[in-house]
Amino acid sequence: MSVQIFNSRFENIQTKAERVISHLIHLLEDGYALCSASSFGKDSSCVLVLMLEAIRRAKASDIDVPQCFLSHSNTGIENPAMDSYTGECLSAVERYVETHDLPVQLVLAEPSMSASFFYATVGRGKLPRFVDAKSRECSVDWKVKPQQRALKRIRKQAGDARNLVVLVGSRESESVSRSGRMKSAGHTATALIPDDESNNVFSNACIADWSMVDVWELLMACDGKRGGIFSTYVEDFELTLELYKAGNQGACAILVGDGGQKAACGSRFGCGICTLTGKRDKSMESMIENEPDQFGYLKGINRLRNFLVLTQHDFSRREWFQRGVSEVGYVALSPDNYSSIMRREILRYMLTLDIREQERADEHSGALANGEIPDTPANRRLADPQFEWITPKVLLGIDFAWGVHGTFDHAFPAFREWYEIKHLGRRYEVPEIEECAFPRKTIPEKRYYHIGAYEHPWKIDGLRNIYGEAVNPQRRPDRPAFGAYKDRDTGETRRVAYFEESDELEVDGFEANLFLMEFEDLYFDTLALEVTDGVRYLLDRGLVKVGRGQIATYDRISRRGQRWRRLQESLNVYDMHQHALENSISKEQHFLLLEEHKRRQAEIEDDQFNLELFVDTAA
After folding, report:
1. d(CA 33, CA 296)
2. For residues 138 and 272, is the Cβ–Cβ distance under 8 A?
3. CA-to-CA distance for 392 and 130, rounded, in angstroms?
4. What is the Cα–Cα distance from 312 to 279, expressed in whole angstroms?
5. Which ranges in 409-455 belong to alpha helices (H)?
6. Can you give the pLDDT at residue 269?
7. Number of domains into which the chain is organized
8. d(CA 138, CA 129)
9. Are residues 503 and 608 part of one domain?
């Protein structure tokens, strides 16, 4: 039985909880579908407990309970301690729902491949958001948009005619500003606030009038061993309390209150390599310092985060070539995204961290099996790897991005790094960078290097797969031998490798895993292939599906990369960036060339106009 008759210790919180549960049951009776948007922090865990209890009681009372939902979003680079914890919670909810036969479906939200940190930063080189950034795109791309997509899926599954109430853990007592926003929006414990963008969707802050002590008291009341009044998806919330305590320099979470250390986006723990927290991630450092036995494995991740922050102004790690070409054939030189060398460096560090974590878990598991350490829940948890940044799906996405940009000399450059670290024993430890190594400085004024155009007398194929065009009709007669698109600049039809499209860039995780196992045999066989051959293969086999209408962009990027590689070969230089800077002209000199070009163009137009007058007169 989930609720005991009476326990004086929890009398106050039981009264408040019963009031919320009754409110939620009434919503179910009226045909509303409920959805708990949970991060498994203290507030959203509290709401989830109340929702599950309401659904269980409603079902036991023979109420026709509609399909309800639990949504959870994951940025992909969460603090591993919190990520491991939420993984355990999700599994526990699944077991609880199955045991009690509750109509609750789990919906997981994650960033799209193209928006993820791995593809955008490690793949394409887009800089992470630093503390001096004017915007917080990461919060939008990794949290807001995935949650919006998840809500659309939930809305579709619930049925357009069904009213949906999204339960949130917002409380007025969290802060003065939060209270003001909630009152302005009309939030109360029972108010249903219509969603501005979706019909029949409402939000409800069902614990709006609760205090922080109320929240913790409810969670502590879910402990059967201590005479708790509720039985829910976990035996107790001791681990939740421990995480909050560790993240606040060992201080009791109840004493710290709603303050304490938070990430820049407002999350209690934030991402594992959040660069918006400034020079230090105090929450993660606190976890490492106060609970080294439990969270010591976070040291390498914190070191990587610090490395990214402290090299922000190291412009030698940046890509200097801008994309456009001026009217006089010059490309602007200015530090922009991460260079290919920096991207490879980050991947090497992350792969090494993954391997080190696997080695730590194996050693810990052996010590546990041999009785060298006590058999506790924490030690059993640590016997498994607590994180894996670079999954096969992520690795394939990075490899595709590197191949499209074409800045490496051989096919499958990211897979080669994985193979050498995984199977050849290479390790790349994150270096310690002194805080004063790269002080803040202004971006230097643009310089300009003459390239002529991105087209070239040498054949630049881009993503065209000439070999595939020849053999595909025989090997794969049930599909086209190649793909094509119309060039928006020239109007000509360009051929590319056969490709498949999806709503957005998509990598099949299962197929990526199979290819990774296959690459163990392909490592040496692909040494002689150029980098674009790898991209053509991934497209031709359907391992990567591009967003609709995006193949032209990928082909244009690929042709631009080929142009730079062939220019470097013809000039016989090792460092193209350095060569371009040494042979560049200033902004003023480039301006004079543009003015001269305009003058000549005007003279040509005048001559053409005079010639047309002469022709008209002769006629």
Report:
1. 42
2. no
3. 28
4. 11
5. 413-422
6. 64
7. 3
8. 7
9. no
Calculate the average pLDDT of the chain: 89
pLDDT value at 610 more than 80: no
Asked if residue 618 and residue 486 are part of one domain, the reply reads: no
**pLDDT tier at 353 (50, 70, 90 boundaries)?**
very high
Query: In b/e form, how buried is each residue of 453-476, taking b as 16+ CB within 10 angstroms?
Result: ebeeeeebbbbbbeebeeebeeee
The answer to whether residues 566 and 614 belong to one domain is: no
Helices (H), 476-523: 509-522
Structure pTM? 0.89
One domain, residues 572 and 598? no
Q: Is 248 inside any structural domain?
A: no
- Regarding whether 388 and 450 lie in a shared domain, the answer is yes
CA–CA distance, 9 with 230 (Å, rounded to integer): 13
In a domain, residue 364? The reply is no
Q: Which of 405, 320, 390 is nearest to 355 (CA)?
A: 390
Query: How many other CB atoms are there within 10 angstroms of residue 442's CB atom?
Result: 6
H-helix or E-strand spanning residue 106: strand 104-109
Place of tokens 């194996």: 362
Instruction: Calculate ∠ Cα 290-356-436, nearest 5°.
Output: 65
**Rounded distance between C-alpha atoms, residue 32 and residue 154, angstroms:** 13
Is the same domain home to 454 and 595?
no
Do residue 442 and residue 577 come from a single domain?
A: yes
In angstroms, rounded to a whole number, what is the distance separating the alpha carbons of residues 171 and 41? 13
Beta bridge partners of 449: 331
Three-class SS of residue 125? coil
Tens-place pLDDT, residues 171-181: 998 888 888 99
H or E element at residue 61: none
Q: 7-20 burial, b if ≥16 CB within 10 A, otherwise e?
A: eeebeebbebbeeb
Q: pLDDT class for 619, splitting at 50, 70, 90? A: very low
β-pair partners for 332: 448
Q: Note whether 299 and 272 are within 8 A (CB).
A: no
- Choose among 193, 235, 210, 202: nearest CA to 92: 235
Which one of 202, 234, 266 terminates a domain? Answer: 234
Cα torsion 130, 272, 42, 50 to 10°: value is: 110
191 and 43 co-located in one domain: yes
To which H or E segment does residue 311 belong? none
445-462 confidence digits (pLDDT tens): 999 999 887 665 446 789
Residue 492 resides in a domain:
yes
Neighbour-count burial of 521, counting CB atoms closer than 10 A to its CB (0-12 exposed, 13-18 middle, 19+ buried) = exposed
Long-range contacts of 146-151 (CB under 8 A, 24+ apart): 146/73, 146/109, 146/110, 146/111, 146/112, 147/37, 147/71, 147/73, 147/109, 149/109, 150/71, 150/73, 150/107, 150/108, 150/109, 151/71, 151/198, 151/201
Q: Which domain holds residue 607?
A: 588-619
Distances, alpha carbon 521 to alpha carbons 497, 516, 562, 567, in Å: 24, 10, 28, 33
CB 179 within 8 A of CB 172: yes
Q: 306 in a domain, yes or no? A: no
Length of the chain: 619
Question: Rounded to whole angstroms, what are the CA distances from 375 to 298, 370, 381?
Answer: 22, 10, 10
Which tokens go with 463? 């993503």
CATH number at residue 197: 3.40.50.620
Q: Which of 195, 211, 234 is the last residue of a domain?
A: 234
